[in-house]
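Deliverable D4.2, example record:
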Amino acid sequence: MKWIGQHIYDFISRFRNDVYLEDVESGTIASGSNLGLDSNNKIVKADASSGDLTAVVAGTGLSGTDLSGPIPTLNVDASQTQITGIGTITTGVWNGTAIAHAYIGADAIESDNLADDAVDSEHYTDGSIDTAHIADDQVTFAKAIGVSPKVFGSTIKILPSDFMSNDDGGSTKFGIGFVEADGTGFGMKIPNSATELLAFVSIPEGMKATHVDIFDQADDRAIEVFEANVNSRTITSKGSGTCNSTLDITDVNATSANYLLILVTTTATSDRVYGGTVTIAAQ
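Output generated by the structure prediction step:
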């Protein structure tokens, strides 16, 4: 049966089978309302706020929209301060704040992770490197090239054994001796009043000699410092002064052949020279 027209009934209508609506126009659902069935299967208009799901709930670092749409979304905030744990990062470039020392694992950085010449004396404090962090045989003579065992910090120690006497007192007087004074000390002694003492000091590779100190028994004998070479008899004066006073010499850069020759002009066999130091710095 097909009925054309319009009838309005004030009665309750029940349909025992499926109900189909034809030629239904699209429209806008009234704000806050929707059409549905109640527990008795009656068509009712209900307020949207009474439903179970009304919005996308977002947690820390996230933001969401309500369900009025058209498409509900869940967004990740661009700036995060609440992340306390992450998985394994497999790629990416770190452009953030420098990593604090406390968050670098013990023994996590080794020589394989460092570029050549990446670490120098400007990047560690005195005493920051100790034997506990150096593996057996890790430091070899090849790595300590040009470094004398007499180097201590920024100085080279000149020991009594580094001195020898010249032949100004005669060839039969050539030599030096260790002298004790009442068993409480010693110094270098000349065999003749005309003899002078000489010390020879090698400068470590990459360094330069800048100052010289020679210590005697307060006689303040004259000293002079020369640059000499293992392949030549020529010497060049770099400055002169006295014992027990620091001598600021003309800087001498280390080469493959040069060294310092330090001359002490002693005048009596009672003179005693104890040793000295050469101050060095990077070239």
